[in-house]
Amino acid sequence: MAQIDIVDVGHTYTAGAEQERWALKPMRLTLEAARTYALVGPSGCGKTTLLNILSGLVKPAQGRLLFDGSDVTALPTKARNIAQVFQFPVIYHSMTVYENLAFPLRCRRWDKARIEARVHQVAEALGLDHRLRQPARRLTADDKQLISLGRGLVRDDVAAVLMDEPLTVIDPQLKLSLRRRIREITEQFRPTVVYVTHDQYEAMSFAQEVLVMKDGRVIQQGTPEQLFEAPASTYVGYFIGSPAMNFLTVERVGGQVTLAGRPLAMAWDVPDAPQIQVGVRPEYVKIVGEPAANVFPTRVRGVRDHGPQRVLEVELAGQLIKVKTPREDGVPATGQILVELPRAKVLPYVDGHLATTPRAADPE
Amino acid sequence: MTLDATDLSLTVDGVDHLKDVTASFQPGRLHTVIGRTLAGKSTLLRVLAGLQRVDSGSLTRHGADFLTTPVWRRDTAMVYQQFINYPHLTVFDNVAFPLKRAGVARDEIRRRVQESLARVGLTEFRRRRPSQLSGGQQQRVALARALVRGAGILLLDEPFANLDYKLREQLREEFKTLFSDQGDAVVIYTTTEPAEAMMLGDVVLVMHEGRIIQTGPPGEVYDRPATTTVARIINDPPMNIFTGRIAGGRIAVDDLQVTRVPAHLADLPDGTYQFGLRAPDIALASAGLQAEVTFVEISGSETFVHLALSGTGFVVQIDGVHDIALGDRVSMRLRPERLFAFDHSGALVRSPSSGPGSPEGR
Amino acid sequence: MNRKQLTKSLAVPVAVLAITVAGCSGSSGPEQKPDKPALFKPGSEISYAKYGKDYPTTKVKDVPGPCSYESISRKDYSGQTLKIISHAVPVIGEPTQLHARQFEEITGAKVEVVNVPFGELHQKILTPLQAGQPAYDVMFYPSLWIGDMAPYLVPVPKEYLDAPGMKDVTKAYLGVATWNGKVVQYPVDGDRHYLKIRTDVLADRKHQAAYLAATGKQLRAPQTWAEYQEIASFFGGKDVDGDGKPNFGSAEVTKRDDLVFSAFISRAAPYVKHPDVTGGVFFDVTTMQPLINTPGFVRALEDMVKAKSTWPAGGANFGLGDEIFSFGGGQALMSYSWDDAFIQAQQTDSRIRNRVAAAPLPGSAEVYNRNTRTWDKIQNQAPYFTWGWTSAVAKTARNQKMAFDYLCFFSNEANTALDLTIGRFGVNPYRNAHFDPGFWQAQGWSKDVATAYVNTLSGMEKSTNRVFDLRVPGVNEYMSSLANGVAAALAGQQTPQQALDAVAKEWTEITDRVGKDRVQEAYRNVVALEDNS
Amino acid sequence: MSRLYATFKYTLISVWAGFVVGPFMWAVLTSFKDANGVQGGATYLPWVQYEPTLTGWQNIFGGAGGVDVVRPFLNSAVITLVASIISLALGALAAYGLSRYRFKIGFIANSDIIFFFVSQRIMPPVVLVVPFFFLLQWANLLDTIPGLVIVTVALLLPIAVWVMVDFFNGIPRQIDEMAMLDGCGPFGAFVRAILPNSVPGLTVAAMFCAVFGWNDFFFAFRLTFTEIQTLPQAVVALNSSIPPWWTLSAAALFGMSPLILLAVWVERYLSKGSLPGVIR
Amino acid sequence: MDGLRRHKSMFLLPGLLTLLLIIVFPLLFTIRVSFSGWNVSNPEMDFVGGANYVKVLQDSRFWAANLRLVLLAGGTVLIQYLIGFGLALLVWRNVRARRLWRVLFLVPMMTTPVVMAAVWQMIFHESLGPVNDMLAKLGIAPVHWFTEAGPALAALMTVEIWQWTPFMFLLMLAGLLSLPKEPFLAAAIDGAGAWRTFWKVTFPLMAPVSVSAIIIRLIEASKLSDTVYVLTSGGPGSATESPGYYLYLRGLKEQQTGYAGSLSLTYLVLMVITLTIVAALLARAFKVPRQSSKAKEQ
């Protein structure tokens, strides 16, 4: 397992295109050894390009890629010592489970006894130890994905395990259990993992750190909690969390931020900018009975029953926001309610970017 | 104008795909059919559409036999889970297709197609082919095509299941508006997700292994699931079900006292029950039952923590996203006032929404 | 319905419908238009030159008569179609095409010609005839098939038999065209096998001396098959004519599905045709016992197997064309078959023009007497009149007059004179007029060559110990069986005796299948030709 | 890729290319020879080793010494085209039915019916030709284009079914279902929703039909007399006991030309990537 | 779409009935004629019982032809498969002038077998053809292409291979082009070399295509007769006779329709049995998964 340094790596598929149009804008990232990372973003965000650069399928137009400090930019896939799990389960049809798992080791000419020991160890972790003699093609898709993973794990020196949307073709009912097993196994073997997905749930459930990508850039890197609590941009606020983060345009009068003519207190200094938005998660907006600081009157526009919670859509100062309330609180009887925007949970955004904390991982 | 199914049954290779399905679908209402994969939801829709024969049972529309009516005369539109459009036609022609078949005048077609496309937000894509669109856009085309005809029966087979969750969220939001003016159409929507059933449905039908096991308004089904199976299906994450004993005013799982008997269960005789508790109704606390974190999932804005409590698994839902490491030991606290009680066969005995002494049942 | 009825119900409609269809389409009578003015003056000059540079520029005079250009050009056949099947181009197929085009030009008729490889011709003609399908009006085919074809042919009408050109056909070839006393085939070709040699080698003093030194014998045109073998093997593989390429002793037609049976019969003739024995060569006509495996035939096959060493590469699979190219092209020094190779060698652009000679087929020093079952030591010669192309008009022909007019035009004196000089046409002398050395000298042949040629041919007409083809129904089956046997022996798959025993067995089966009486009756005709000559 | 491997690879490719081209080259050389150019032995260099002539080519375009190939060419084209269209139409219909519906006639199921279609290719032509002769005679269709078309359909239909069943199986059923829901009858759904999306499959089937239809010699030869001649027949008519090799070569080259163009077209299709999905 | 029972026949029936109409009569006719003595001089549907079949059993030439077919069809198809697959691999990717090669490699399949056989006949001509001429230039004695059994078989097989390798090439290339990329990447990641990648990835993935291509070719190759007819006429002797050509000889050339009928049926039954067995064996040999013929996981 290796530390991966992505140094000014950028790529374009059309030669000579200006950098603004590159599929992957030049970026500098460090993925620490033995951690799990998820690349998440909508299709076309550059996550697959980045993955292909890591696997060696794509040679970047510029920049260097270092595995534990050594430059692998020019090396072919075969020489990079990585493992990869693909969207479609890839197994060797003509081989048994055992032979599949032993294959990378046989290619490396390990001796028989050593192979045997290692394969059994990995198979046990995969929960496939009792099926080693079966033809691999008879397994279900989720077990095949485990074999793919296992082929990477048998190699004790693998630099990184890349996973490219590994749950795409898995039956919805099995997705959870497979994700769980993959996570358990990676926690046991602790390789460096880069997991690509377009599904935020998967990314946040799986990875220790999530990299949100958009338009060829990594717009935020952080733990799931960081992404949720402090989205670096309005996009991340929208992209992470369901329902999405509420954004309200506020005014700045003197040193004060006001909303609907009332002061809005925040735990942060607010920069001086012509257009300021504040973000607040629906989970943190509270319905209160009494006016107080940071409490605003609103009008209820709609109610959605999600089961355990209801999502109220309310109008605040001419802007719609969502409020999540527990089911047992019932639906407000009147159309007018008061909501509190908790001081510590209201974040300022300028030009779509969080304006308090340094912007993480934003290449400049 | 109702669509009535009576005792529809279909067995293929010894497996029941439909078993004595009886349901009445009302005009102007949105019915959600919820069930796990392969519960028979799609089969039911296909039977209603005329794409699948049945072994027995009857289907009537306006009181007249509908089973013998061929597909193309059933006045039925359908949206599939897979993004199914005519690959060779442009977006415009895709939407115009059913109108052309119905012999609608050219100007009228143009007007209605444009209107429909505008409603799903695809006006600027009308000249593209489906393959040049994203998954979400493709499904919007399918929706537009289903809508444009004003069909009497509208079937939607997990239409958003293959979209990623942001899109799913968005289309779900739009859905009610899109279908608000379908007038007297019978709308049937299948899903595996409780949130969709809750949000969209006027009526929820819960399907399991080819049978409809409960029917009712969403809130009703949610608050009073008839069986443990319904309780699991209608909740995400599935309701925690555990077997315990009521004895001496306490509820115990094996030898572990987990909680006191809440008021609404107070009059239940001592004995063994299956208890149900929703994931949000368990809290992580500083003190309480000691459990080990086996898995953590993050779903939207919630964190689902899977816990093992002396061999029994529990799922706890907490608001917000939290970094919790696997293997941690945490304390959890059940909210006894939210407990459901089921008998050994799984039938609901008492729910939190019913007062003490009021018997459950249908 | 029982099985018998079922099978009947299957066969009957087919047969009935076949007959109905045939009847219907045959019933529309030909329309006879009045004559139109002639396009040719009597005795005008005829040449093929205008049809391309593949044709000689030779000019001949149109000979007056009912079949002349002048007479035929009076006929008006516009709006009518004549359907002809012929052999593949060029052998007989090309003259069929050429004369069809001319016939179209001068009569206004539309002529459709289909050309078919030799191996297919028999069934392609016979199948529709037997099925009653009016497929062809005029058919060109090997004359020995007369036994199969005769029932479906229109006898040549008297007016054509009386034409001067027909009167001039030699007795042998008119005999070949006759079946049960009626002339049913229209003679267009006269074929026989004879020997062809290269005089620039065989008559060369140097070579003669060398040959004498080596064998103690005079080098001359071989008189016997043994001599033929000796000469052939002496010169085999050496470049004796100085063209830089090796020469070979002999080229023979040996391809199974081509005409190997004719070559074999030529080789066998002197061993099996005893001047004093009558009653058939292939069968004993009284018992219809096959004689094909008697010692004479076996000896000939042994000779042929031995001769393999003298053939050029591929010589064991030579078709007629290969033989022609081999001898006509100067590769093989000797060959025996029809005229084609000889005419090819005498073409104006040939390298070996006038360096060749024709001679009678080799004979033998002894002949098998099947009555006494002994080999009689006599010098024996037995010319083989092997088939030759012929033509005929089908009974189903819509306009029989037009069909015969085409044939008489095809074979009119002017056309025949030109056709005879084009080797690839496969048209060979069959009229008395053709046995005139002057005619050939006019084509540029040297006097010696022309004289030897004419003498060889006319000598055969005069011979009294001749072999004719097995002109009986099912002849193709007999010959195909014989070809199989010969091919098996040549390929070394069987000994000559084994091979011919198998052939004899098959021949008996064929006779039984075709009907012994029918075959016997037909064979009597052949035997009569042979014995009465 | 190492240099050694590249050399090895291009050597192999060139060797096979040479083998493929050889016969064509020989036919081209021969088509410009005449008897003198042929009978002395093999010659390769025109003007040096033999004097080139156009005889062979003149002979096939109306020269008196040959067989005209223009009319046979047209006949072949018409027969191939019509028979291919009929086979594709019937084959696509049947394949669609077999792909979408379950048939059960006694113990016979879909796979058996498909096998029945495909198994027709096992029949040696010799088995069929005599009965065909009587069949066509009965229908008065011997020596006619319709007659040959019928027979050719019997040869091509199995190919069309074989290709199309696989292809239709690859088109989602939901598309035709949707078309029916949209108001098309089963046939309308096929024509309006499925056929327009079957172009790659139909193309491949059409290619095979063209190849096998155009190249049929056996049936055309035996079921015609003088009226209808197909191109292979015209070429074989030159296979005489004294074969005019130059004319034969010219005719052979002419006869293959349209299908060689087909090869170019198939390759384009292959490179575009539409074909690989069809043949599995 | 089982709800549409009534409409399904209208799709199947036109094609099925057409084929039945065209095929059933010939088949019944052949069965009937095989019990008759129909021949050229006696073209009648009489009844001779099983006499023809007894003759078939004793017909050593027929059985020899069948055995020969095993070599001719089996051998050429195997070689075609190897070469076709090899060529497809060569021009699959990373090759200059790829499209030129592909067209070139397809062309022979498009040519008419009888016509090409005539051209090959010139080429193999023992004294006038270029093959022997070039061998002579290399100092090799002329090969008796059509007059010795061995060379004749070799010539025949050469022509068959020339003509039909493109068919294999087409199917195999199409198969290769439709393969997913991931397995190859996976093999590269696992550290497999070219040889191992071929045997463990390419070959197994191509197994279903291989099996169907081989079977289709075997079906077509078993009918081998046009080429024999023009090229060798079955010679020398009967050394290159295929059953198809032998049937043609008996049935059409000699017009022993009845006997040929019984030969045909015997042959047909043999073929169906053999091909069925071969298909099953191939599927096992190539380890083709039974449930699906598609290479990709779904």
UniProtKB/TrEMBL annotation, chain A:
UniProt keyword annotations, A-Z: ATP-binding, Nucleotide-binding, Transport
Keyword Lyase part of the UniProt annotation: no
Signal peptide limits: none
Superkingdom of the source species: Bacteria
Record-level Gene Ontology MF annotations: ATP binding
Domain ABC transporter positions: 4-240
The keyword RNA-binding is assigned to this record: no
PANTHER family membership: ABC TRANSPORTER ATP-BINDING PROTEIN, MALTODEXTRIN IMPORT ATP-BINDING PROTEIN MSMX
UniProt name for this protein: ABC transporter ATP-binding protein
Natural source organism: Micromonospora thermarum
Top-level taxonomy: Bacteria, Bacillati, Actinomycetota, Actinomycetes, Micromonosporales
Automatic annotation (TrEMBL), chain B:
Keywords per UniProt: ATP-binding, Cell membrane, Membrane, Nucleotide-binding, Translocase, Transport
SUPFAM superfamilies recorded: MOP-like, P-loop containing nucleoside triphosphate hydrolases
UniProt xrefs under Pfam families: ABC_tran (PF00005), TOBE_2 (PF08402)
Residues forming coiled coils: none
CDD domains: ABC_Carb_Solutes_like
Domain ABC transporter: 3-234
Keyword Nucleotide-binding included in the entry's annotation: yes
Database matches in Gene3D superfamilies: 2.40.50.100, Nucleic acid-binding proteins (2.40.50.140), P-loop containing nucleotide triphosphate hydrolases (3.40.50.300)
Name of this chain's protein: ABC transporter ATP-binding protein
Species for this entry: Micromonospora thermarum
Lineage summary: Bacteria, Bacillati, Actinomycetota, Actinomycetes, Micromonosporales
Automatic annotation (TrEMBL), chain D:
Predominant location: membrane
Record SUPFAM superfamilies: MetI-like (SSF161098)
Positions in coiled-coil regions: none
Residues spanning the membrane: 12-29, 77-101, 113-139, 145-168, 189-214, 245-266
Localization per record: Cell membrane
Record InterPro entries: BP-dep_ABC_trans_perm, MetI-like, MetI-like_sf
Boundaries of every ABC transmembrane type-1 domain copy: 73-266
Membrane topology value: Multi-pass membrane protein
Family, as annotated: Belongs to the binding-protein-dependent transport system permease family.
Protein name as annotated: Carbohydrate ABC transporter permease
Organism: Micromonospora thermarum
UniProtKB/TrEMBL annotation, chain E:
Ranges in a coiled coil: none
InterPro entries per record: MetI-like, MetI-like_sf
Keywords: Cell membrane, Membrane, Transmembrane, Transmembrane helix, Transport
Pfam families per UniProt: BPD_transp_1
Main location: membrane
Cellular compartment(s): Cell membrane
Membrane topology per record: Multi-pass membrane protein
Keyword Transmembrane attached: yes
Domain ABC transmembrane type-1: 66-281
Origin superkingdom: Bacteria
Segments traversing the membrane: 12-35, 69-91, 103-124, 161-180, 201-219, 265-286
Keyword set includes Cell membrane: yes
Family: Belongs to the binding-protein-dependent transport system permease family.
Protein name listed in UniProt: Sugar ABC transporter permease
Species, as recorded: Micromonospora thermarum
